[in-house]
Specification:
Blueprint (H helix, E strand, L loop, with lengths): L4 H23 L27 E9 L4 E8 L4 E5 L6 H15 L7 H10 L7 H22 L3 H4 L7 E3 L2 E3 L2 H9 L4 E5 L2 E2 L2 E2 L6 H18 L4 E5 L6 H11 L7 E2 L7 H9 L5 E3 L5 H11 L4 E2 L3 H4 L2 H13 L3 E2 L7 H12 L40 E3 L17 H5 L21
Parallel strand pairs: 5-6, 6-9, 9-10, 10-11, 11-12, 12-13
Antiparallel strand pairs: 1-2, 2-3, 4-14, 7-8
Helix pairs in contact: 2-4, 3-4, 6-7, 7-8, 10-12, 12-13
């Protein structure tokens, strides 16, 4: 049993310090600039700052309904941190990568996430791709959660404090009917998926009929939602550059909020050339990882809105670094968050602490079964207290303002996931049997 002596002494010292501050403010009551004393509750902190904490084990929970993995990181202080990391369609592979990190983490102090990130990433001859960084994401988020809980403060306070009071959200649709549903859910902005037209997928170069089908659909959506709703265009890397550029030029008349993934990110110089040929902001990054990949994107001018996913790119530590790098290039942050609520909330904490945030995505639940358990993209059946959307936003207070991430996993999570098969990406084929991008 850990001794409570140091904790009692620590709280006693804090109480004395707070009393002294309040007394000093009282003596300066004549000053017109007197500030109201800030209430401080040391009981929210679970351990004293100098008390030792060690990681004892990792509990890995596949969450197939969200195509993701949740992690519970246990400590000898009784504090449990939660995290999330995933490669959709490669759950077992990512779980194995997380298990490999456990050997390093056991016995370490979880309140040093940045240091441990460096050690786990750099103490390998080969630099990691998305499998390693997704595993790092899971444990990194969990360590930050523990650090916040240990100190009794929200995660965004550890990242420099809040720069805003709420997080703006956007929905997703593909038709006028879908757009109506998004508005009915309370969103004030959305993005429109553009993968097919006239009932088929695109080719290397397209005819007017195919392009006109896309234009007609977006025109109908714009007429449905009106001119004040922001509409992003999701091309999802499904189109070859020749067709993608034609689609972008045809849609400029609707003044899209952004164009997402006009092509796959492997050819960033080509994406940069495309970005120069349109006045619509280019957004990309959900498949990219670490600050180094995003540095290349920014230096080439391939995109001005970045979409890293905290469950892929390396966690809180790396998402914060990417955001800071983006600020230096006057680029905005538009995070990807299609999987689980743990990652979405962790990402919101980072976005709450930066100046260059635009809007946030929410989990789609596209892999969740429609029966047995009632679920929601705001966290129902995944966390004990689901988020509440207000006027298209998540207000920090009362949603994610508790210690750490400010959320707890639902007690029935494992039972709710029982029997759900792992999700697989749908295969995409052309009419001649050749492979198409996804």
């Amino acid at each position: 049993m850990k001794s409570n002596v140091s904790r009692r002494n620590w709280i006693k010292r804090l109480s004395a310090s707070v009393a002294g501050i309040m007394l000093a403010e009282g003596s300066a009551s004549a000053s017109p600039k007197k500030q109201k004393a800030i209430a401080f509750n040391p009981s929210l902190a679970l351990v004293a700052p100098r008390d030792a904490i060690k990681i004892t084990k990792l509990e890995i929970i596949p969450v197939h309904t969200c195509r993701t993995i949740f992690v519970k990181m246990h400590t000898d202080a009784g504090i449990i941190g939660i995290g999330e990391g995933t490669v959709e369609g490669r759950i077992k592979t990512t779980m194995a990568a997380i298990q490999e990190l456990e050997k390093y983490l056991i016995g370490k102090d979880p309140r040093q996430p940045a240091h441990h990130w460096q050690a786990m990433y750099r103490h390998a001859f080969y630099r990691g791709g998305i499998i390693l960084t997704s595993a790092l994401s899971a444990v990194d988020i969990a360590m930050w959660d523990i650090k916040g809980k240990a100190l009794g403060v929200p995660l965004y306070e550890l990242l420099g404090g809040p720069t805003r009071n709420y997080i703006r959200l956007y929905g997703q649709a593909g038709s006028p009917e879908g757009a109506k549903e998004v508005l009915a859910e309370g969103y004030k902005s959305m993005k429109i998926s553009v993968t097919s037209s006239r009932g088929r997928l695109s080719r290397y170069s397209e005819n007017p009929d195919f392009v006109n089908g896309i234009v007609e659909n977006l025109k109908a959506i714009r007429e449905t939602v009106g001119p004040k709703i922001d509409l992003g265009i999701e091309l999802h890397g499904d189109h070859q550059p020749q067709t993608s550029m034609v689609i972008i030029k045809a849609l400029e008349q609707f003044q899209p909020w952004f164009i997402e993934e006009p092509i796959q990110f492997q050819n960033l110089p080509l994406m940069a050339e495309m970005a120069k040929k349109t006045h619509i902001p280019i957004a990309t990054g959900e498949r990219m990882v670490t600050k180094w990949q995003f540095k290349e994107l920014l230096s080439l001018g391939a995109a001005s809105l970045l979409q890293p996913d905290i469950t892929h790119c390396g966690g809180v530590t790396e998402l914060k670094a990417i955001s800071t790098l983006a600020e230096a290039y006057y680029a905005g942050m538009l995070p990807h968050a299609k999987e689980g609520i743990v990652g979405a909330v962790a990402s919101m904490h980072v976005m709450a602490s930066i100046p260059n945030f635009l809007a946030h995505e929410m989990p789609s639940l596209q892999a969740a079964p429609k029966d047995k358990v009632e679920r929601s993209y705001l966290g129902k059946s995944y966390i004990k207290k689901p988020l509440v959307m207000n006027d298209g936003t998540i207000i920090l207070k009362d949603n994610i303002s508790g210690p750490g991430l400010g959320i707890e996993l639902d007690d029935n999570l494992i039972d709710n996931e029982r029997g759900v098969e792992e999700w697989e990406f749908p295969e995409m084929w052309d009419s001649d049997g050749s492979v198409l991008d996804h």
